[in-house]
Give the backbone structure.
Amino acid sequence: MKGLPYKLTGILLLAFVLFSCAGNYASEYEKQRDQKVETLLQEMTLEEKIGQLMQKNGEFPQLREYIEDGLVGSILNVPDPKRVYELQRLAVEESRLGIPLLVGRDVIHGFKTIFPIPLGQAASWNVDLVEDGARIAAIEAASQGINWTFAPMIDVTRDPRWGRIAESFGEDPFLNGVFGAAMVRGFQGDDLSNPNTIAACAKHYAAYGWAEGGRDYNTANIPESELHNVVLPPFKMIIDAGAASIMTAFNEINGIPATGHVPLMRDLLRQEWGYEGVVLSDWRSLEQLVIHGYSPNEKEATYEGMQATLDMEMVSTGYETYLPELIEEGRIDESQIDDAVRRILGMKFDLGLFENPYGLGEDFPELLHPSHLEASRQMAIESVVMLKNEDVLPVPEHVRSIAVIGPLADAPHDQMGTWVFDGEKEHSVTPLQSIREFAGDNGLEVYYHRALQLSRSKEITNADAILRDVNRADMVLLFLGEESILSGEAHSLANIDLQGAQEELVELVSGPGKPVAAVIMAGRPVTFEKAEPYMDAVLYAWHPGTMAGPALTDIIFGKVSPSGKLPVTFPRHVGQIPIYYNHKNTGKPPSYESWVHIDDIPEEAVQYSLGNTAHYLDYGFEPMYPFGFGLTYSSFELENPELENPTLQVGDTLRASVVLQNTGDVEAAEVVQLYTRQLFGSLTRPVKELRDFKKIVLEPGQSREVVFEINTQDLGFHNPDKGFVTEPGDYHLWLGTDSRDGLKKEFEITR
Ligand code: GLC
């Protein structure tokens, strides 16, 4: 440090010493932890070891006895914090070894303060907000004694018929990985032993979103290249982000049930990826190996689970019942049990449960803290995607009376969406409530009609009164979509049109010719092509959570511009599914030159060639709205795309830049998206793949250069015959504001 001021030298030296200790500290911590695990393991009986591999539901009749006997590793679904405390005390103070419990809960998009469903959070394209939301969820959940959440769900899916698309981050592997990792950071914080953190559990490993027909739990038949290039990358990103655990899926993958899938679990996850976290089954998914027709009985299912290195069994009792026998018979070695127990005890040490099993105690930030509600409101604002606006939003000054109509304008439970165990509708602020408050403050008249009791109701009530009020109103705000019961687990739909009499309702309220702005709340893309022409504006709000009302009011009345972008492609018709942006080119890609619409086929046509390309005669080949699409109240231009180095070698960094300008007259955010395409490969590659994105807020007239750096190594893919390869050749790159358009550049990887 010659020549540096003495004091600065001292500071730098101190920093160096601390840094090197910190580095050692991490391995020192792990060394001490592992020693403690070994010491404890040596004291455990086989029965106590097997007990750690069991997760019991809160209603299990002998739960107290089992815990007192040290035969439970984890509990789930115990919503009462006092009971959690009592059960934890039993484990720590009454059982022989005092091993604390993992306390699990589905904290999927908030605990008491409910955030938008994960699909809506993905639509925000705001990584920091997603992380902050998970942090808040962890604080609230930990305050109730929970120390383990079964989230993030990162099941890539291309099928909106599947009810659980709501829980995912959509169709793109990169988005699922980025937002899943953000949730892991939020849940686990910087130090998992901090009592205001909870362990994450990435799920469902794997290919749950590939259920045939979008029918939940259905078979997943998926080529290895697609499994490794689309489904698995988010799990690798999540593991690299430090996820403490992973949950296996219900489905089979190409004939082998995920929960007993030795190649995917033992060979890939454990041996190739080196994952040392806890792997938990889904609810009874281990015993379901029998129902799948993979194991002849539960004993054999137990054998498969242990061979696959499944650590903990959720609720079913195969491990408890058959592991002793399997060890006795020498088919399972006790060392396999020890490995599972080590991972479970390691997670409990990492959570700090041996030092502080009771978590935050009484001094925690109260549930629904104003700052939590504000974060939920901001996330809801940024998740709303404006799909159409023919100058009817934001509500113009001259509008002095509004007809608020529809089944989701005042639906405090439904606006929270699926997987809301601990959210309470009493805390929801609905759009109707917020609009009435805004109207009262600004001298506006509001005429409200629910019109349909539920989104799926088939009868419009009070049609005459509705028309009367639409006639006297200056505009209509229509709240449509699906109630939360139509979304989520086991809630798949073959028909994803607007349910019930909603299309009739749209036609009814548009009759008088007043401007109609529609807000659609749903847990999936719904198909609404028939109703769309009657809507002058469309805001897609997903299920926005507790603060749906204030968030939508802010947007509708122009306090803030919508900024969401679609994380999933919207089909025009359910028959187009699967339809997604990162598709292959095929040998006969569709075009408007070749497609003849069914209505345009000449009557005399018999063998008339209708264009031999990959389209539908009736619905063509394009979606209703493409992945990455979303409008704002402003307008933006992209110009001057540049590649610093259009000729690269594998491992080089590709630097791309573009200038974004807000050419409108209000502040707004735009999401600049970077896509690449490998034109030729040892396997065919998608026509586009999202590689990075940046959400930028600009004032009117403001410009900014947006710069991306991509490691060419990351442009590779898994070829089953070669492993992960990044191949020399020609590539295209797009810088755009959705997956359909963009400024194109070309580059080459030479070797
Ligand atoms: C469910 C879900 C899983 C959830 C678990 C516990 O069936 O598939 O995602 O975490 O059971 O509730």
About this structure: Residues 106, 150, 203, 282-283, 489 surround alpha-D-glucopyranose (CB under 6 Å). The chain has four domains: 1-36, 58-350, 380-556, 636-750.
